[in-house]
Amino acid sequence: MALDGPKQDFKYIGTRPDRPDGWDKVTGKARFGADFSMPGMLHGAILRSPHAHAKIIKIDATKALALKGVKAVVTRADFPEGLEGEDWNIQENVMAGEKALYDGHAVAAVAATSQLIARDALKLIEVEYEVLPHVTDVDKAMAEDAPVIREGAADYSVPEGMHPNVVRYMESGRGDLEKGFAEADLVIEESFTTEAAHQGYIEPHACVANLGADGKGDLWCCTQGHWFVRQMCTAVLGLEATQLRVTPSEIGGGFGGKTTVFIDPVALALSRKAGRPVKLVMSRSEVLRATGPTASASMDIKMGMTKEGKITAASGTFRMQGGAFPGAPVDVTTMLAFANYDIEHVHHVGYDVMTNRPKQAAYRAPGAPMGAFATESVLDELCRGLGLDPIETRLKNAVKEGTPATFGPKFPPVGLIETLEEARAHPNYSVKLGPNQGRGVASGYWMNWGGETSASVAIGDDGSVQVSIGTVDIGGSRASMALMAAEAFGIPYENVRVSIADTGSLGINEPTHGSRATFASGLAIIEASREATRKLCQRAADKWGIDADAVTWEDGCAKPSGPNAGEFDPLTIAEIAAEMGSTGGPISGHHESTPDGFGGSFGTHVVDVEVDPETGRTTILRYLVVQDAGKAIHPAYVEGQFQGGAVQGIGWTLNEEYIYGEDGRLQNPIFLDYRVPVASDLPMIDTVIVEVPNPGHPYGVRGVGETGITPPLPAIANAVRDAIGVRMKKLPLTPPRVLAAIKARD
Amino acid sequence: MSKIHVTTKVNGDEVEYLCEPRETLLDCLRDHLDLTGAKEGCGTGDCGACSVTMDGRLVCSCLVLGAEAQGKEIATIEGMAEDGALHPLQRKFIEHAALQCGICTPGILVAAKSLLEKNPDPTETEMRYWLAGNLCRCTGYDKIIRAVMDAAAEMREAS
Q: Which terminus of chain A has a lower count of CB atoms within 10 Å, N or C?
């Protein structure tokens, strides 16, 4: 697409107006997934496997069906056979077939006249299992004697002789590692592990499904991407995709975890069988046991550096498990592990491994934080070993426009150097530290995404603008969309309405994922607005009896230009709109594309911690996020993304982990035990927005949602290293682990 | 099983409902009274998304039985704006961009209002500990704390 370069002077962009949906969200009126109901609606509940790995011998629902109020029971027998690839994976994950593959795997579901009856009925379903040996650890799952999750799941990439649980293998790099390491004055080699974390959205998955025997249906659900939901549900159920209309509710957080389906196809199957609408809402423990946490990782890193601080070579081996299906994001981990730096000799190896855990889903910059934890920790050790400043050293190696990335292509304009310089200049970087305190620095990257996008704008008869987009608003994006439309039309922000269209009302849109919504829907809105203003100019030209080329659009008005300049009074959008019906009908604009000019976003974090030597507890004293936004459309929500990402990273580093018992069952499936950060754990999160415009967007936007969770893991680990003098190589840094490290040191 | 007849007051209105003995106050508010502003985030009293007050005391409505509301006064997020005007906390939450997805917002607003009624001039630390029972996964709490501090200052000035 031809773009005339990012715009630089703005009237509305960069301001901080109230979000359009603010009133609804603070008064309790906003309708989230579980807030929707229908007349005649039944309530569903799902029976889940208590075993990590078991053959399902028999399911007997006779007693459940005899319970008063029970209207339908579904099992895998109610789903079509013969699916392949990811369609089969999703079907197998939403309802187990021959085997239950993890603790919490769905085996049957009930629809009844109340939720209490549905839950009672679950207890009456008799399932006969043959319990099988299980494995939940990535390294153990690759060992020779590990139980096989499923034969034949590996793809072509896996070399012969590997365990069947290794389902994808990847290798990439360039240069000559041996030569690179020989040039180094210091080489460090270490191994690291990270545990699985959950996105922890506060809203459990919820939906209402209404599917007729004629194969036509409606689904209301909380999702990041309703066209994805439509495709997945119809594939899993053997329906014609466009016969299902999916309407997204307000969404109570997702962070990647709501880009796929877990309960929606089950609710549709129950509805089809019962002939009535069915509502399904997950409990918190169902969310933790049976949705899509991150992969866990085991990694070996080797890096070499000269005494001047130049990285000479780097290699990494990354083993990740993503549950009982292929799909751990190890491809992204290998791609981004060393992406911050200009390294001549670099090599990556990745293993995607299956275990008896739930099927992983995307979680904010999927795959990136684990790799960054390992590589930025080793970089910190190199700086320490050579007596170098961590920011100066990063500046010496930082990528910039034209640098060949460790994953291949040359970087377009990027802002890593700017984030490092801002971090160095920030007062937090020079605060004097006390005893048991330490400072850590780390940088991180997310490449961002474009994706299929379709958006429309329509002029109201009062001159307001109605924007229809297909990317759900998960963090205030309606405000950003309205700002971009206001800027493009030159009309006040308050005169723009933004709505999220259902799958029957707009072309296909990928989810709000990959930090793409403000970039891609924003670009589409700007282009659609330009189309609409061209039509508005035409109406003015017709009225004035001049050529449309002699009319320009400026500050919300059509104005005669060139030889006609000043000859007619400008016509406002409201004046043209008022006459639309008699001058040619409604005026709208539309744009659809798969924009590929998404610019990646770099960030640098600086954190100070204090470690209690008696308990091993780590307290965050101050935290700084510096990140490149390209152009911050609504700076308050950009800061919010920075802060939220950092705090999720803090949780992943200090508290959060999936703890499996010897029996393969998840031991911490409630928020009391899966402990996400609370207000009293944290200080204010300081932010600096860097703006290196993205040439691929008319206003210079880069996605900002995901980068922020990548640096916290290593930044905090580096700060703890600074405080206690010990390198922690296993996340999370729980008090017992840190205390043990302190004791071993002494 | 026979249902229990409950008469209670919600946001100043007399209401009645029939509930199962094991239904929670949250279930009753949402399913019997159509007040869906309070959310179920965990059902175990750990997330605070279902926060309401009962006779002026802040509670997780998922940990209160519907039958326990008999004769009590319940206040929910739906009753916070009065006469079409937002409460200062609600205004400040919008102004400070103190919400992203907004699912935790009703519970946090109810909890923050309860704090300011007890202590009109809390320190940042007091606020952080009072709100430690309300999980927010989007914001990192920074803008929430700033919004509550700003609302508290405005309310002190007005009183």
A: C
Of residues B136, B46, B43, B135, the one with CA closest to residue A284: B43
Alpha helices in A623-734 (DSSP H): 635-654, 712-724
d(CA A539, CA A542): 5
For A27, the closest of B39, B40, B77 (CB atoms) is B77
Residues B93 and B34 in one domain: no
Ranking A99-103, A278-282, A422-426, A560-564 by mean pLDDT, the lowest is A560-564
Q: At a CB cut-off of 8 Å and minimum separation 6, what does B82 contact?
A: none
CB-CB: which of B35, B36, B41 is closest to A203? B41
**Is residue A550 within 8 Å of residue A563, measured between CB atoms?**
yes
Q: Domain of B101?
A: 88-158
Same domain, B131 and B105: yes
CATH number for domain A22-30+450-593, candidates 3.30.365.10, 3.40.50.150, 3.30.310.50, 3.30.70.420: 3.30.365.10
B74 and B9, same structural domain?
yes
Q: Do B144 and A679 touch (CB under 8 A)?
A: yes
Judge whether A76 and A120 are in contact, CB under 8 Å.
no
Do the domains at A38-366 and A388-448+599-745 have one common CATH topology? no
Strand runs labelled E in A306-452: 311-321, 345-353, 437-446
Do A252 and B132 count as a contact with CB atoms less than 8 A apart? Answer: no
Beta bridge partners of A353: A166, A321
Mean pLDDT confidence for A178-186: 98
pLDDT tens by residue, A488-524:
999 999 999 999 999 999 999 999 999 999 999 999 9
Two structure tokens written together for A388: 């170098």
Q: How far is CA A701 from the centre of its chain?
A: 18
The residue out of B27, B58, B79 marking a domain boundary is B79
Decide if A19 contacts A92 (C-beta within 8 A). Answer: no
Q: CA of A252: how far to CAs of A25, A68, A288, A472, B103, in Å? A: 11, 34, 16, 11, 5
Best CATH choice for the domain A388-448+599-745 from the list 3.40.50.720, 3.30.70.1290, 3.20.20.450, 3.30.365.10: 3.30.365.10
Instruction: Tell me the C-alpha distance between A348 and A320, whole Å.
Output: 13
Which residues from B are below 8 Å from A621, CB to CB? none
Strands annotated E in A421-487 = 437-446, 453-459, 465-469
Residue B111, domain CATH: 1.10.150.120
Would the pLDDT of A7 be above 90? no
Domain boundary among B79, B103, B128: B79
The highest-level CATH class for domain A38-366 is: alpha beta
Which of B23, B65, B74, B101 best probes binding to A when mutated, by most A CB atoms within 10 angstroms?
Answer: B101
Burial class (CB in 10 A: 0-12, 13-18, 19+), B146: middle
**The predicted structure's pLDDT at residue B1:** 59
